[in-house]
Write a structure and sequence with these properties.
With about 325 residues, this protein is an alpha+beta fold. The protein is built from 8 helices and 16 strands. Bound molecules: gibberellin A4.
Length: about 325
């Protein structure tokens, strides 16, 4: 199949094969090897046997379904997303648009409990569902970065996961709802969420059974990702690219709208360090032959840059050394 690329008039081939799967029940040394291989090849993989209880996922999913089925005026009470809260069509604040509505939440428990009041008639249930989900996916994210550290022989195995576990961590939870396109619509499939990479360390994504997500390979091919509601997908973010001195690269991805009857709902946990943390290559990843590719910056600095640019900007280029 050949589809027009989102950012140019050229066309790129789509190839549905090849997305790696990592089985968390595998023997440890093999596990870290396969995580590194998947991260190097695609910056993206599926995790099976992740150990997150089904009800933790379904409770958050049901809260999302309930919220997005409300009237527009009710949903707007939880907005606008500047950046947190309910957003519709607007992504960021520099003119990016998508065919979606969403809830963006900071993972700090106090902020969740405060936001819940405008989101749900039962704020306690909502915040419990959100907090339990965050706790579970944070564990998955920390496990993945520990496996990355092991696979790269980084002496301080917890160097990255301790940033994600920090109480000041700037991690974010996003629930996206992409309404289905009307089957009578003569429009081409539209852009649900435009091409970009995630600025954080790592993203843990889960969606319902409706597809639309595509990832871009290092050779510029777009691959559709078959949805799997029981499993999680992991994406390498910009900050992990810097920490591994470019050995792992963040994955560019996008979401196309569907002509199916049901809407796509996805939930993403974006694992981030505290705002004042320095984002810099791990010492093990730097040598005389391989000097640091990026100059050091704090997470707050990088986030500020990301929010001042358009969604699809290759923002890491601004931080290259020299
Ligand atoms: C992409 C990853 C996360 O969804 C997000 C997004 C954020 C937003 O929607 O507010 C950004 C985008 C994301 C990167 C560039 C800036 C900021 C929109 C945008 C145009 C929550 C994030 O952290 O960065």
């Amino acid at each position: 199949m050949v589809v027009p690329s989102s950012n140019s008039m050229r066309t790129k081939k789509i190839n549905a094969a090849g997305i790696p799967t990592v089985d968390f029940s595998m023997e440890r040394s093999k596990l870290s090897e396969s995580v590194i291989k998947a991260c190097e090849q695609y910056g993206f993989f599926k995790v099976v046997n992740h150990g997150v209880p089904k009800d933790v996922i379904s409770r958050l999913e049901n809260e999302g379904i309930e919220f997005f089925s409300k009237s527009t005026s009710e949903k707007r009470q939880a907005g606008p997303a500047t950046p947190f809260g309910y957003g519709c069509r607007n992504i960021g604040s520099n003119g990016d648009l998508g065919d979606l509505e969403y809830l963006l939440l900071h993972t700090n428990p106090l902020s969740i409990s405060d936001r819940s009041k405008t989101i749900s008639k039962n704020p306690t249930n909502f915040s419990c569902a959100v907090n339990d989900y965050i706790e579970a996916v944070r564990k998955v994210a920390c496990e993945v970065v520990d496996l990355v550290a092991e696979g790269l022989w980084v002496p301080d195995k917890y160097a990255v996961s301790k940033l994600i576990r920090d109480v000041q961590s700037d991690s974010v939870l996003r629930i996206n709802h992409y309404p289905p396109m009307k089957s009578s619509s003569k429009r081409d499939p539209s852009m649900g969420f435009g091409e970009h990479s995630d600025p954080q360390i790592l993203t843990i994504l889960r969606s319902n059974e409706v597809g639309g997500l595509q990832i871009c390979t290092h050779d510029g091919l777009w691959i559709p990702v078959a949805p799997d509601p029981n499993e999680f997908f992991v994406m390498v973010g910009d900050a992990l690219q810097v920490m591994t001195n470019g050995r792992l690269r963040s994955v560019r991805h996008r979401v196309m709208s569907n002509r199916v009857k049901k809407g796509r709902m996805s939930m993403m946990y974006f694992a981030a360090p505290p705002p004042n943390s320095w984002i810099t290559a791990l010492p093990k990843m730097v040598s005389a032959e391989k000097p640091s590719e990026y100059r050091p910056f704090t997470w707050a600095h990088y986030k500020q840059a990301a929010y001042s640019l358009r969604l699809g900007h290759s923002r890491l280029d601004l931080f290259r050394a020299q």
